[in-house]
Design brief:
Order of helices and strands of chain A: EEEEEEEEEEE
Order of helices and strands of chain B: EEEEEEEEEEE
Structural class of chain B: mainly beta
Distance between the termini of chain A: 37 Å
Oligomer: heterodimer
Helix content of chain B: under 10%
Structural class of chain A: mainly beta
Radius of gyration of chain B: 13 Å
Shape of chain B: globular
Number of helices of chain B: 0
Number of strands of chain B: 11
Shape of chain A: globular
Largest sheet of chain A: 7 strands, mixed
Distance between the termini of chain B: 38 Å
Chain lengths: 112, 113
Amino acid sequence: DVKVTQSSRYLVKRTGEKVFLECVQDMDHENMFWYRQDPGLGLRLIYFSYDVKMKEKGDIPEGYSVSREKKERFSLILESASTNQTSMYLCASSRQDIYEQYFGPGTRLTVT
Amino acid sequence: DQQVKQNSPSLSVQEGRISILNCDYTNSMFDYFLWYKKYPAEGPTFLISISSIKDKNEDGRFTVFLNKSAKHLSLHIVPSQPGDSAVYFCAASAAGGGNKLTFGTGTQLKVEL
């Protein structure tokens, strides 16, 4: 079974704090993705990576950065958290040759 | 610019009847489509997919139909069960797009007893 784990289920941070969200997958997948889910907006792609140390901007990268130092781990960084980054953050992974992505349970981030 | 649209935010169906969830897209480069199901406090799980070379794909109670000329796909669930109550997202991918998926806004399905 593919397993994608995320470091926290719930997180509360203050405006201006630096926030790290970590994601680990155990299926040796090449591709990894970060999304945010907001009511009425669905899932929106923030960043993705198709290899170690590679990253590509998604549809809403502003205010975020990512790091992929190891194949199994993909980190999302909020350099200076703002209240409009309060959201559900979902990590996903997939093999290079298929479209199906496997998701982690999500991190509910609240920025106050 | 919402390239994948699910115009019904919610749908209520009686147990045992058919649920039909709809999805429209605007990007003619999309060539692969997927449906995901999401329960509260869990990540989405893959349900069923269809390639643009087909117009129908079936897996047990779930069937996805694709109408390329109308840029429309639908998910049929027959018979609907209470455990099917969840948010359903359709997603699309374009060849050469690096396996990125573009998701719709989701439809909340409630299957009532």
